[in-house]
């Protein structure tokens, strides 16, 4: 079995007397989809924020490729190859697809036009954006110069995921990517998740949708009351088992780490 790309050991996060994370460990490997499930208040969001640099754990260790890291802000995680797509997407509706893919990473023109006048190389960004989208196999984004505000919910999600995959390099974290989508658009996003895995990226998928989780996940990390209630696989446990463990109706004796 390959070594983890991203690993968390004994993460603890306290909010006054409220325990956000209680000694939580997690591993995800290249070419794997790890789903994180749990009821509201189980610590899913806190865990993801710690892994993505949006929050600093009070105790515990985070490792990338076996090396200990200290994320103090989201940019630190991005620099380490971890990209996060939050439920709010954080796309700029008025800009086109290419501009969104290069948001905060814009390519400037060569020479004085770029260095002095700070003009953007729109043609090069569109060329690279087309390459990224084509490599990911995203067929729903045909016109790279199209404004994001004219896209459907599923297409906007594809833009956000494409941006993460293009620059993530190692790990892509997806926070409820199908929550606001219909059946057809959800299917497109799930296919994109599988494509990311097939290209060797490590994917962490946070979702409440059990059928979606069991369709794409290789392993399922179950959060309960701030701690990890166990790790299962779709081959070893059913959706009903996972929900029972998540709610405390069932206890897991062995994990699938």
UniProtKB/TrEMBL annotation:
Does the UniProt entry include the keyword Nucleotide-binding?
Answer: yes
Q: Which UniProt keywords apply?
A: ATP-binding, Nucleotide-binding
Tell me which domain of life the UniProt entry assigns to the organism this sequence originates from: Bacteria
Keyword Nucleotide-binding assigned: yes
The record's SMART domains line, in alphabetical order, gives:
AAA
**Residue span(s) of domain ABC transporter:** 6-250
Question: What GO molecular function terms would the record report?
Answer: ATP binding; ATP hydrolysis activity
Please report the name of this protein according to its UniProt entry. Answer: Fructose transport system ATP-binding protein
Q: Which species is listed as the source?
A: Actinacidiphila guanduensis
């Amino acid at each position: 079995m390959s070594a983890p790309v991203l690993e968390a050991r004994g993460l603890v996060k306290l909010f006054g007397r409220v325990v956000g994370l209680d000694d939580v460990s997690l591993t995800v490997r290249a070419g794997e989809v790890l789903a994180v499930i749990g009821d509201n208040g189980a610590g899913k969001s806190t865990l993801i924020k710690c892994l993505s640099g949006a929050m600093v754990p009070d105790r515990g260790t985070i490792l990338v490729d076996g090396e200990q890291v200290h994320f103090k802000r989201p940019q630190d995680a991005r620099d380490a190859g971890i990209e996060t797509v939050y439920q709010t997407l954080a796309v700029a509706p008025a800009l086109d697809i290419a501009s969104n893919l290069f948001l905060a990473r814009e390519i400037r023109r060569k020479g004085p036009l770029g260095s002095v006048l700070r003009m953007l190389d729109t043609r090069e960004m569109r060329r690279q954006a087309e390459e990224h989208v084509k490599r990911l196999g995203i067929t729903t984004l045909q016109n790279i110069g199209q404004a994001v505000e004219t896209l459907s919910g599923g297409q906007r999600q594809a833009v956000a995921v494409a941006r993460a995959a293009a620059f993530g390099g190692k790990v892509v974290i997806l926070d409820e990517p199908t929550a606001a989508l219909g059946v057809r658009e959800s299917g497109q996003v799930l296919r994109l998740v599988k494509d990311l895995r097939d290209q060797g990226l490590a994917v962490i998928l946070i979702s409440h949708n059990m059928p979606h989780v069991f369709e794409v996940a290789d392993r399922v990390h179950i959060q309960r009351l701030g701690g990890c209630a166990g790790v299962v696989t779709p081959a070893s446990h059913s959706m009903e088992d996972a929900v029972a463990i998540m709610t405390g109706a069932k206890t897991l004796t062995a994990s699938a780490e």
